[in-house]
Write a structure and sequence with these properties.
- By secondary structure, this protein is an alpha/beta fold.
- The chain has one domain (about 5-270): Vaccinia Virus protein VP39 (Rossmann fold, 3-Layer(aba) Sandwich), CATH 3.40.50.
- It has helices at about 35, 45-60, 90-100, 115-120, 160-165, 170-175, 200-210, 225-235, 245-255; strands at about 5-10, 20-25, 60-70, 75, 85-90, 105-115, 145-150, 180, 215-220, 235-240, 265-270.
- The strands form 2 sheets. A 9-stranded mixed β-sheet has the order 8-6-7-3-2-9-10-1-11, with helices on both faces. A two-stranded antiparallel sheet has the order 4-5.
- The longest helix has 18 residues, at about 45-60.
- The protein starts with a strand and ends in a 10-residue tail after the last strand.
- S-adenosylmethionine binds near residues 11, 31, 196 and 220.
Length: about 280
């Protein structure tokens, strides 16, 4: 039996989580691009401020030698440079560099190849750019980074029986240690949230970077995917989502009220805080 806390509130303040109490963070921060769709100006400094504030809290709550799995993508936009020239912006590395300044170290980088679902939906695909002529050709941008970080500190001691329960079978190990992960995006099929990752992403990361019974945190919970993955892997979890409109989706996605693993009913607690509101970025 595991427990899961869902807090509808701003993760720049994770007052419910004591210092050095979380073993693993798995998260996908909001995409700045949701703003462009509304034709708003691109304020990267404000966005990086949010990242800094949330990851300062992440650093506080993570145990020494704890891990952070950060799913982020680069973007193409004409709003970043003042000259309006459409460019590839290395946003993922801008986010990573902010996070590293807080004292984390990089452990590994994986590439998530999201498959080709997007083109079924008719959104811009491989014809993006100067098609059919050279010389402005972009990739179809259907991949993202997964940076794995560690908080330096004395090595975690894990009892042998817990290690045994968390063992990764040989075949899985071979699959998980491939540099590129081909996992189909689910975002096209979940209409109520624009930026969901498939449950296989957090599930795999939780199996790789935590032990059974650990506490996993997602400060940008969205539809609740990380909570679902924690339930499926026998870990406890805490998730923050600022926007109250996603609460019903979260309850459904985490299969609240249903038994997922053998054993007792998981405990699920939901708290709606006074700072819950529509978020700037999704
Ligand atoms: C990219 S989505 C995460 C999606 C999630 N991985 C999933 O599978 O559903 C980012 C989420 O962060 C939320 N968010 C933005 N700013 C936040 C903040 N300051 N505190 C908590 N959540 C925030 C957004 O509302 C959005 O749902």
């Amino acid at each position: 039996m595991t427990w899961h806390k869902i807090i509808i509130g701003d993760s720049r303040d994770m007052r419910e989580v004591p210092a050095e109490s979380v073993h693993l963070v798995v998260t996908s921060p909001p995409y700045v691009t949701t703003k462009f769709a509304e034709g708003q100006p691109f304020d990267v400094d404000e966005y990086l401020d949010l990242i800094r504030s949330v990851f300062k809290e992440v650093h506080r709550v993570l145990v020494p030698d704890g891990r952070v799995c950060l799913n982020v993508a680069d973007i193409h936009t004409k709003y970043y440079y003042k000259d309006g020239v459409f460019s590839h912006i290395p946003l993922a590395h801008m986010v990573l560099s902010e996070v590293l300044k807080l004292g984390f170290r990089t452990l590994e980088t994986f590439i998530w190849d999201k498959g080709y679902n997007r083109h079924l939906g008719g959104a811009p695909g491989p014809l993006f750019g100067s098609y059919p002529y050279p010389h402005t050709i972009y990739s179809n941008v259907y991949w993202e980074y997964i940076f794995v970080l560690r908080k330096p500190g004395s090595k975690r001691e894990v009892p042998k029986e817990v290690k045994e329960k968390s063992r990764i079978p040989y075949e899985k190990w071979r699959e998980y240690t491939r540099y590129i992960w081909r996992i189909e995006s689910e975002s096209e099929w979940i209409k109520e949230h624009p930026a969901v990752f498939p449950v296989d992403i957090p599930k795999r990361l939780i199996e790789m970077y935590s032990f059974v019974g650990d506490i996993v945190l997602d400060p940008f919970l969205g539809s609740g995917t990380t909570t679902l993955a924690a339930r499926l892997t026998g870990r406890n979890s805490i998730g923050y989502e600022i926007n109250p409109k996603y609460l019903e989706l979260i309850k459904r996605r985490i299969m609240m009220g249903q038994r997922l693993l053998l054993g007792g009913e998981d405990e699920i607690e939901i708290k709606i805080r006074e700072d819950a509101r529509e978020s700037e970025w999704v």
